[in-house]
From TrEMBL:
CDD domains: PBP2_Fe3_thiamine_like. Keywords: Signal. This is Extracellular solute-binding protein. The keyword NADP does not apply. GO terms for cellular component: outer membrane-bounded periplasmic space. One of its GO terms (biological process) is thiamine transport. Residues 24-43 are annotated as: Disordered. InterPro entries: Ferric-bd (IPR026045). Residues 1-19 form the signal peptide. It comes from the Bacteria. Gene3D superfamilies: Periplasmic binding protein-like II.
Length: 344
C-alpha cells in the first residue's frame, strides 16, 4: 500500500520502563487458548488502550482483553508463557529497543501489515520496522524538554541539550533516573553516541548538578513541570501535550538534535489467536486506530491522520539523531550500571 513519506530519525531504548500493575484478565479455557478473543499486552496508558479496545470492538465482531503492566513485567510474563502463550499482540514499550531485545527470545512472531509492506526498514534515518517483520512502528515519539509557561518564556526555553547546562537552570531541571527509567537511558546513550563516552560523562556530571530531582518514572519530570516543581523537564512529547490539553501551564521544545523513534507492535509467537493479533495490528495502523492515538497527543505514523500537537513526522525529521541500535543493545546494561555507580 502507500509508501510512508517523509519519515525521519531513529531509535529508542526502553527496557526498564513503567513498572505498572497488571490490569484486566482475559478469559480463556483450561488449555489457555482464546476463542474469538484477542489478548493485548501493553504498557501504554490504560485509558488510551481502553479506547483502542473499544474502537476495535466497535468495528469488528471480536472482543479485546487488555493486560496492562510495565514493559519489563510484560516481557518476563511472555517469557514465562513461552511454552503456552496467552497473549496475541504486544503494543508499545517506549520505542523499539524492548522489541529488538525480544527478537532472539522467541516470544514475538513475524507480521508486517499490507499498509507497511512498501516501507523500507529504515526511512530517512528512522527504523520503522524489523528487517524480518518482527515488529512494525505505529507512532512516533520525540525526546525533548517540557517547560512551565508561567516560569519560562518560549524565547528563553532551552533549545539544545547544551542549553540545559546554563547556570540559570541550576536547581530548576528534572530528568528521570537512567538507572530506572528507559526514557532517561535513551537520553544518556544518545549523548554517548554523539559525544563519545568520556565527554558524555563530563556532560552528565554537570547536568546532574543542575537537577533538583531525578525521579524513577519517565513521566514524573513533565508532571513536576506542570506543578511548578521544576522549570524544565526531560521527557517525551506526548507527556507534555497531554497535560497542556488539560489546561496545565506546560509546553514542549524539540531540541536541535534529539532521539526520535517509532513505538511498535508485534504479534506474539504462538499466540492463541494469531489472526486476531494480525487484525489488531492492521487496526493500529488504520485511520480509526491512528485517530485514537492522535487523540492522546501521540504523533500518528499514518499520513492520512493529522497530529493534534504542533509536531508531525515532517516537522521533526530535521531534529533527528542517528543512533546505533546494535551499540545500544550491547552497552545498555553497562551504561545504566555505570550511572548507578557514579551518581547513586
Amino acid at each position: 500500500m502507500k509508501k510512508l513519506a517523509g519519515l525521519a530519525a531513529s531509535i529508542a531504548l526502553v527496557l526498564g520502563v513503567l513498572a505498572g500493575c497488571a490490569g484486566d484478565s482475559s478469559e480463556s479455557g483450561d488449555d489457555g487458548k482464546n476463542s474469538g478473543r484477542i489478548t493485548l499486552y501493553s504498557p501504554e496508558t490504560p485509558d488510551m488502550t481502553k479506547e483502542l479496545k473499544q474502537k476495535y470492538e466497535e468495528l469488528n465482531d471480536e472482543t479485546v482483553d487488555v493486560h496492562y503492566a510495565g514493559t519489563n513485567v510484560l516481557v518476563n510474563q511472555m517469557m514465562a508463557e513461552k511454552d503456552n502463550p496467552k497473549a496475541d499482540v504486544w503494543y508499545g514499550g517506549g520505542g523499539i529497543l524492548p522489541f529488538e531485545a525480544a527478537v532472539d527470545k522467541g516470544i514475538i512472531g513475524s507480521y508486517i501489515p499490507d499498509f507497511a509492506a512498501d516501507w523500507d526498514v529504515v526511512e530517512n534515518g528512522i527504523k520503522v520496522k524489523h528487517e524480518d517483520g518482527k515488529y512494525v512502528g505505529v507512532e512516533i515519539f520525540v525526546l525533548g524538554f517540557a517547560y512551565n509557561t508561567e516560569l519560562v518564556s518560549e524565547e528563553e526555553a532551552p533549545k539544545t541539550w547544551e542549553d540545559l547546562l546554563d547556570p540559570k537552570w541550576k536547581g530548576k531541571i528534572q530528568f528521570s533516573n537512567p538507572a530506572a527509567s528507559g526514557t532517561a537511558t535513551l537520553m544518556v546513550m544518545s549523548q554517548m553516541m554523539q559525544k563519545g563516552e568520556d565527554e558524555a560523562w563530563k556532560y552528565f556530571e554537570k547536568l546532574a548538578e543542575q537537577a533538583n530531582s531525578t525521579p524513577d518514572s519517565g513521566s514524573a519530570p513533565t508532571k513536576a513541570v506542570s506543578m511548578g516543581e521544576a522549570h524544565i523537564g526531560v521527557g517525551f512529547d506526548f507527556m507534555a501535550y497531554e497535560l497542556k490539553a488539560k489546561g496545565e501551564s506546560v509546553d514542549f521544545v524539540v531540541p536541535d538534535k534529539t532521539p526520535i523513534l517509532v513505538n511498535p507492535a508485534s504479534i506474539v509467537e504462538g499466540g492463541p489467536n494469531q489472526e486476531g493479533g494480525k487484525k489488531f495490528i492492521d487496526f493500529l495502523l488504520s485511520k480509526e486506530g491512528q485517530q485514537v492515538l492522535a487523540n492522546w497527543y501521540h504523533i500518528p505514523i499514518n499520513p492520512e491522520v493529522e497530529s493534534k500537537t504542533p509536531l508531525s513526522l515532517e516537522s521533526v525529521k530535521s531534529h533527528a539523531v542517528d543512533l546505533d541500535i546494535d551499540w545500544v543493545n550491547e552497552n545498555y546494561d553497562r551504561i545504566r550500571n555505570e550511572w548507578k555507580e557514579k551518581f547513586q
